[in-house]
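Support reply, case 0932

Customer input (verbatim):
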Amino acid sequence: MGSSSKNIEQAQECYYHEWMSFQSQRIPELKQLLAQRRSHGDEDNDNKLRELTGKIIGDFKNYAAKRADLAHRCSSNYYAPTWNSPLENALIWMGGCRPSSFFRLVYALCGSQTEIRVTQFLRNIDGYESS
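Our regenerated output:
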């Protein structure tokens, strides 16, 4: 199991570095397009910005999907990646990205419905009709 976990960590780190390399390629292009937009303000430039923004968002979605896929096999690396420095992990936690935040989100999305269903279920067991 240790070897499998190590392979997952290496894959996650590889995906992270791949995403960061895409970012380092796209950020200068984005800055250039934004500077051109300020000086010229043409519609063609706006279309290029939309296209580049779509690529950047697509890169992040791809990275997130790969991490999510690996998280099914080893979830601890999802919350505190091993390639982050202790400072980066601390900033992630101080910024509010904690495992408990994910649990609260899941509860907020489906937990309230669960309470309603349990109440309805218990009323049906006790012989009360739900109205």
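We compared this against your earlier run and they match. Two observations from our side: Helices lie at 2-39, 43-71, 76-79, 86-94, 99-125. The chain has a mean pLDDT of 76. Please reopen the case if you see a mismatch on your end.
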